[in-house]
Every structure is written in structure tokens, then in C-alpha cells.
Amino acid sequence: MSSKNINKITRIKKIFIILIFIFLSLILLLSNVFVTITDKRRLPNLQSSKTELAIRGNILSEDNFKIASSLKLYKATIDTRFLDIKKIDLFVKLFSIYSDIPEAKIYKKINDSLKNPGSIVLSYNIDSKTAKNLKELGFKLRHLNVFKSIEVNDNKILRGLNINESGEKRLYSYEDTLTPVVGYIRKYESDNGKTKVNGIKGLEKSYNNILNNTKDGKLEGTRDVLSYISFNKNSIVQNRIDGADLILNIPLRLQKNLELMLDKFKTKLSADEIIVSVMESDTGKIKALASSNRFNPGLIRQTDIPYLDVSAIEFLFEPGSIIKPVSISLVMDKNRIKKNELFNAYNNGKLNSKGEYPRGKYKLGRYTIGDDHEFTKHYLTVDDIFIYSSNIGTLQLAQRLSGKEMYEGLKSFGITEKTQIDLPYEKVGVMPTIRQFSAGEDKGEDNVFKATISYGQGMTATFMQMIKAYSAFNNNGIIVTPKIVQSLSVNDKKVSLADDTQKRVISKKTANEIKRLLIKTITKGTGVNAQIDGIEVGGKTGTAQIARHGKYQNIYISSFFGFANDKNKKYTIGVTVINPISTGKYWYYHYASWSAVPVFKEVVNNLVKLNYLAKSADN
Hints:
Elements: H1 3-38, E1 47-52, E2 59-60, E3 66-79, H2 88-99, H3 103-114, E4 119-126, H4 128-143, E5 150-152, E6 155-157, E7 162-171, E8 185-189, E9 195-199, H5 202-206, H6 208-211, E10 217-223, E11 229-230, E12 236-238, E13 245-248, H7 252-269, E14 273-280, E15 286-291, H8 311-314, H9 324-333, E16 343-344, E17 361-364, E18 367-370, E19 379-380, H10 382-387, H11 391-398, H12 403-412, H13 434-438, H14 448-454, H15 463-471, E20 478-480, E21 485-490, E22 493-496, E23 502-504, H16 508-524, E24 536-548, E25 551-565, E26 570-578, H17 596-609
Parallel strand pairs: 2-13
Antiparallel strand pairs: 1-10, 2-3, 3-4, 3-7, 5-6, 8-9, 10-11, 10-12, 13-21, 14-15, 14-26, 16-19, 17-18, 20-23, 21-22, 24-25, 25-26
Helix pairs in contact: 2-4, 7-17, 9-16, 11-14
């Protein structure tokens, strides 16, 4: 065969081999394309979503100070499998600077994790500002190659510093202010693993559902190449809705002033507790509800446990003489007191050096009831009975009511009834039944239950019940419902919670007569030390002993309830001092005139000083 033919055959073979190679390559390519098209692959999800945690609402004073608020918390996590061992020192140094967490604490967490590498939480307690800075640090750390990628299931993965929402923390900016009224909270873990809080006592409890009525925000859309969410018409954007804010009737400035004042009086009087409240007589708005026994809700200690209850509604006591205006008003409202009528003081005996007869003694069955005041006469007017707080005169008046009238009258004033104040766990107290009040009625006999209840023994009430009852005497015979919360702020919209629940319990004429007597008690009677020039002040003292195991102890509760008015404002004010000193040099401090009355006067002085009352030359 010629060389020419051989070369031709060789070229044909080469072309054939090339064609076969091209054909096989094409077959392989098409096969790969087919497999790629038909194979079920785990493609990266182009959709991305992000949630934003909603938090509990705030509690704000009337003058817009945050008494309680919630702070969103974040957690910082890393996976030590991705941490470059050579750059641990750099990571610890930078993370410590940005988070303000000591380096030693970070080193310990990382070193412990390196024994069994995996995800660790460096902190659960990061605030919003620090979280923002740490997110920026996360990007820097990636550029510094502090974290390295590793191969997982034939895929390279890189995980760096992650900052995610972990929950919320309740803050009490003014620590013990307005406690125990504001209450306290308890943490719990929600279904999505976030730290949330529930109210356990006080306003935090009574408005828990409103404060916690939240809805987390949601962002959902397509991811871009940098994994950021880009928005289009198909994206979902739901703004977070935080819980409603409570706006109180109580201004912080007044509340704080009264609390500081109570701290001084508690020391002076060596009292277990002093309670004070100021309420607008015609609206029921509580302008202050203060106790000398307070605690920091954010840091409750073992020693704080006795202070957690709101004594104004949870502590029951025999009111003593502060109930007398209620008892007398019930008789007066039935028109059963004659004009200029006189009542026997039952104080026969020899005159003393001051021209006074011995203290009266009244026999009622097997009981003897006495008076604390010595009179210069044997017969008393209603004014005498009221302003000098005569037990004997008061019980004689009470006998003019039927058992049913006595029972229903006290009930109408709110005795043994909830005041409906917006606080949980309110107690109601006890008093005799209609049957007990009516014993001997058909025979015209004196009733011991009417007698003792008329001057505040043999029954129990709460501080707030007495505040509500006394509002009638400064509001034309109408009692009001005490309210601490003024309104809600929901999505920046104010929703009023004003409760105009009012009830007439006595006539305007009777109320004004009792008011006159309360003012006279200040000018001439047991409350004379409460006088303040330029302010209309009235009130009634009450000193009662605490009964235990059926016997009265040498432990006293001293109270003064009344009102303070100027031309524009009317306030019902109550003061109760629990167990003031009653022995030693200052034994007389247990009398209300030496304990509760001075506190009352300072309350009114504060109202004047802070411009809640204006002095007038007419008063």
C-alpha cells in the first residue's frame, strides 16, 4: 500500500476517534444534565423569615415617669467547632470589649466547650444597644477569619458569632417607689423558648393580661445574595405589638415625697407600718397610696417577704372611732335625732380639780362600756358626742336603728364589701349579721352588737374601705370607687379607664352636717393638731387595740381619716399607723392625736407645697 493511502487511512481513523470522543462526551454531558434536572436536590431556600419579639407594657406615673418597664434581652452564641484555635485570644479580647463581660468568664466558657466542641451561649443578658454593637463585631470577626469553615456532609459551612433575641427583663427604675402597689413579677419560658414574665401581685397582677397582650413582629420575603430579606408585593411585614401601657392617676413626685415623709415618721413612732392615701373625693382617682414598708421588685430579698402584701386592702383591723361618723350619719339620715337633743353621759361622780366629772360608764347587760373623755357636764349634744368621740353617746344613737337598718347602712358605705379598687387579693372584713344586730329588738332592749360596732369594735375593715366610706362626707353623700389606673395606651392610642361608679349612701344634707362636725373636730376636738391655715380640713381620730385569741393586746392601730379642700380640689385622705410605740418615754404616741394626726398634717402640707392644694385667706 502506498504511503499516500496509509496517511489517508490514518487521518480517517483519527477523525473517527475524535468523533467518537465528541459523541461520548456529548452523551456524558447530556446524561449529567438529565440527572441534574431529574435528581431531587437540596437547593438553598430562597425564602427567609425573621421574627421580632414583642414585650410587656410599661407602668407610667401620671407625670409620665416609667415606674415599671420591660427591656428586650439578647443572647450571644458561638459554635466552638468553627472557632480558629489560633485566634481565640483575639476573639475573647474583642468580645469582652464589646460586651463588657470579663475575659476570664469568656475563656472559661470556651475552654469548657473545647473539651466537647459545639454550640455555647456566652450570655443571655445582652441589652439592645450592646446587641447591635455585637452584630457589627460579628461581621468584623468573619473578615478577620476568626471563624473558619468546616465540611459537613460534603458541604462547607461557616458559623460565626450569633446574636438572637432571648426574652425580656422587667425593670423598676425607681426601685421601691410605689411598692407594694406596683407589685412584682415571675419569669417563665414561652413556647418559643423566650424568657417572659407574669405579674404575681399588685398592678402587675391585676393588669397582667393587658400588659402581656403582645404580638411578635414578622418579616418574610426573598433572600438576596447577602442573605438580607428583600421586599416585594409578596413579602409579609407584620409590625410587633407590645403590651398596653398603664397610665396611673398617681404622680411620681407626690408619691415619692409622701414615701420619704413616711420613712421619717416610721422611725420616730417605731411603728410596724404607716399607710397613707390621697383620693379625689368626687372622682375616686387615687393620687397617692404609700406605705413605709417597701421593697425593690427587681431584687426581692428574704427580709422583704413581710412587705409584699398591699396592707391598704389586705390588712384587716378594727377601725375604732373612725367608724363613728358612719354610724352617726345613718341615724341622722333617718331623721331620728331631735334638734338640740341631749344625751346622758352616765358620768355621775365628784368633780376633779379641772371641773370635770369622771369618765362615763354605761351598763349594757353584762358589759360595761366606758368613755375616754372627761366632760364638765352630765348631758351631751350631738356635737359633743362627735368631736370628743364619746362611745356612750354614739351607742345610744345607734340603738335608734333597727338591726336591718344598721346592717344595710354599713353595707351601703362599703363595710364588708370590696371597694373595687384595681388591685388583686382585696379582703372584705367581717361584722355581725342582721340577726345579731336585731337581737332583743322586739323587746326594746339595747343591742350589744349595735353598740360595739357603732364605735368600731367587734368588726373588721380595710384601710381602703374607710377611704371609700369617708368620700361620702366630702362629696355630698355620694361614695366613689377608688381607681389607681387612669388609662391605657394601646398602639399609641389612649383608652380611658375612668370609672364613674358612684352611689348615694346618705342625703346631701346629712353629708354636709357630718362634714361640719369633722371640721369642728379639727378646730375644737381630738384632731386639733391637723389644722392648716387657708385649707378646709376635717377629720376623725381613731385608736384601736389589736385583738388576738379573743383578748385585746397592748398593740394599737391609730388612724385619722378626713379631707382637705381648697376652692377647686377636694381630697379624701387616710392615715393608719400600725403598732406605734406605746411604752416608755413616748408611750402616748399610740394615741392617734400624737401619731396619725401629725402624719395627716404633713400629707396636707405636701399637697400644698406641690401645688395640689392652694391656700385661701377665706379658710
